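Translate sequence into structure tokens.
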Amino acid sequence: MSADDETRDLLILGGGLVGMTLALAAAKKGLSSHIVDRADPAELTAEGFDDRATAISTASWHLFTNIGIAEGLEEFACDISSIAVTDQNRPGRLDFQPEPHEGTLGRMFPNRRLRLALFEAAAAEPLVNWVAKAEVTKRERSEFGVAAGLADGRKLKGRLMVAAEGRGSPTREDAGITIAKWDYHHRAIIAGLTHEKPHDNVAWEIFYPAGPFALLPMQDDADGTHRSSLVWTVSEEDGKGVMKLGERAFLAEVEKRMGGVLGKVLSVGQRSSWPLGFHHTAKITDERLALVGDAAHGIHPIAGQGLNLGLRDVGALVEVLADGASIGLDPGDPQLLKRYENWRGLDSFMVALATDGLTRLFGVPGAAASAVRRLGMSAVQRTPALKTFFMDEARGVSGDLPELLRA
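Result follows.
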């Protein structure tokens, strides 16, 4: 019998960073999966395909360590040792810097490296049947199991369907799960930069009325060229114009907003632009169905928590299913799904609300609003307990953490 013909514990629809991590984490607990994705892995890992980079929190790094991919990723990591937050580079800066014994606030990785590590691990894992370049044309769920019909006529069967396709999840739509959403009418412009001064492992979050302007530290090139990843939020109407700017004009606009923190900007990589919105589902489970990652919650990238929130979903779902398996429960058992719903529903909603609130707070224009924000930031700067709270949130180590996300 081929792997495609087996009925596996999980049928994961969507093989991005969250879906692939889920398949590998489940395998570590002895749970088998089919993972189906439309994309061609060769294209996703091609040099130059994607200039995006992702901040991996401390808790997410523990997850990568526990599933065995951290060692291969370590050489590509750039530590975030502190975060500097300013309102338009005016006085009243807020600095988050953990004590030396607390470690970093996270690590930056090129998305391409994360994909390569996950794909290599999945290809070598017998409990993961990875079906790439496949179109799902039919989804079936019943009290007896789940199945996905593919465009080429194949049919994959499982016990629990997991929607991991991202924001526009067709599986979520197919299940009729209601969703609250709004558009920020903003776009994130993302590009890699090289610059004159070293970043000293500091991540900068500079707030402007149009949205945050973030500079995230990346590893220096082999020849010592200093590099950072830019995430610049602009209004929807300005987005097209910013994308069309010539390189010199784009560099001039970026330099103006940086306020000299990294010196002269030397070059910019390939630019990409992404619409920004908020969405949250009314529930994250249904009959033999669980939602993970952006299929369940889409948030503003203001705090860099999108992927990390999805990886918390992964850790919780795997722990719930493994606990169930140890007493003989089927992965689609309603009690297990209820436990997952209760565990993740509120936490992800609170993070989503907090990021939405920050986006709105820093988007209020005018000198008075700026003065109030800077007053609040200086109060946090002088309150160690508050700073520790925010740093623990950034590192993902607060709340009821799944076992796989602990050291």
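Note: The chain has one domain: 3-181+277-405.
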